[in-house]
Amino acid sequence: MTAFLSSINYNAWIVPVLLLLPAIGAVGLWAHALVSAKDPADQRWREVRVLAFAFFVVEAILSLGLWWSIDPAAAGWQAMVDLPWIPQWGVRFAVGLDGIAMVLVLLTTLMMPLAVLGSWTSIRTKPHAYYANLLILTVGMLGVFMSLDLVLFYVMWEIMLVPMYLIIGVWGGERRLYAAIKFFIYTMIGSLLMLVAILYLGAEASRVAGAPNFSYDFILNNVHLDPTTTLWLFGAFALAFAVKVPMFPFHTWLPDAHVEAPTAGSVILAAIMLKMGTFGFIRFALPLFPAAAMNPAVRSFVIALAVIGIVYGALVAMVQPDFKKLVAYSSVSHLGFVMLGIFALTTESMQGALLVNVNHGISTGALFLLVGMIYERRHTRMIEDYGGIAKVVPIFATILTVVSLSSIGVPGTNGFIGEFLVLVGSYKTQPIAAVISATAVIFAAAYLLWALQRIIYNKLSKPENEGITDLNWREIGLLVPLIAAILWIGVYPKPLLEKTEPAARRLVTYVESAAGQVPVTASNTAR
């Protein structure tokens, strides 16, 4: 496979194509809307979902080659494209990948077709606009993982905001406008502070280079700041990323957004968009400001917030009457593990954080798909409205059980290995935080197993549940890849760990060296 990809010069064109294809798809859907304006409404939404799904499937197939074409041991950026974009401002269209970004790009391209299938029958109002927004959202999400120019990164970061605002605000639930506005305000405030920091870094880079420059590599290697400025700039970046993670206490937008979003919106938020925050810490906050990130007071503060989020998210999830909100609060807990792993700063904890990122996307994405499927049948998310429905929907009950066990972190599922690596790696540098965080595993078992009991394993006591239909072939088909990933990573995580280990090790080495004022050699750069 590697030889074939080399023969077609795959790395030279794949990154811009992955960014361009969804944009072309969005334009194509708008063109279809104009052409089919006089067609019956039923025909329009059926056609447009097929067109959108086709674009996402092609995108996923094209992206699969990254698994073989990206060499995790290589120190530099790969599949890189660097072109002038706004020369007078020193802004370039610079994109590329390493092992960390590659895994998250694949998570994005492979989850998007499943998200479309998850809303296959539920989106009938303004379908062209809905699927066009999903495609534009994909451009922004991929661009965040690929950007190597700080202005380009900011543009991609903001591109995500508008389509998700519309997806929640137009196609969401009863309180959709409140949830959408809250999501927009939280994200925008953090983003504006990050923009100020980017402009400051660009000005410093311009002073050093003698010309406008926002290149990530140039700033990383040539811009040196005094400690006070470093702390302020780190704080601006960290706040923007903390809101997106979301870390406690910036998490309050998330449950509302998840509950009110349509199924695909909830899946994308959980599986991909929350990863933007953790990726931002890994790619930008730690390498650009290592002295501030590793300042004992800053580090202790971030880890304390991570631990609070782990425990708080689990405890609040335990008392939720709404199953979708329960899953939403579980994300606060899971992403707390990611932040603990990042700031514990060992190779094991960093790899565990990356693995929890991926596993959370798979497991929680599957949970939201399942919530959406049962909601379409019963039009309620309240746990008390169900009961022993395993008797009438045995396939749904089986898959929900497997996915819940993976979210708990039962050995043999994908959830176990990531959290285990975070706890083992964190214990080396943050033993108290690791011990406290380990208790959240018990809480996770409590809130999910109790919810399972009340939803599917109790006595079938409500007559209205007796007529619920089980999953159909489309729904089973879209869940099968997620179940396969849960079991594959749980039993054999080695391939995924091999893809992320070199980049994680280089990042840890670089941050430790830079924070300790040790000269950085060519072999331990941030990438």
In short:
Helices cover 75% and strands 3% of the residues.
Describe what this molecule looks like in 3D.
With 527 residues, this protein is mainly α. It has a domain at 294-491. The protein has 22 helices and two strands. α7 packs antiparallel against α9, α13 (263-288) packs antiparallel against α17 and α15 (296-318) packs parallel to α20.
Mean pLDDT: 88
Strand and helix order:
HHHHEEHHHHHHHHHHHHHHHHHH
Helix content: over 70%
Number of contiguous helices: 22
Radius of gyration: 22 Å
Topology (SSEs and partners):
Blueprint: H1 2-7, H2 10-35, H3 41-63, H4 66-69, E1 78-86, E2 91-97, H5 99-118, H6 127-146, H7 150-159, H8 161-171, H9 176-209, H10 216-222, H11 227-244, H12 253-260, H13 263-288, H14 290-293, H15 296-318, H16 323-344, H17 347-378, H18 394-408, H19 414-429, H20 431-457, H21 473-491, H22 494-515
Antiparallel strand pairs: 1-2
Helix pairs in contact: 2-3, 2-6, 3-5, 3-6, 5-6, 5-13, 5-17, 6-7, 6-8, 7-9, 8-9, 9-11, 9-12, 11-13, 12-13, 12-16, 13-16, 13-17, 15-16, 15-20, 16-17, 16-19, 16-20, 17-18, 17-19, 17-21, 17-22, 18-20, 18-21, 19-20, 19-21
Provide key terms for this protein.
mainly alpha; globular; 2 strands; disordered C terminus; 527 residues; 3% strand
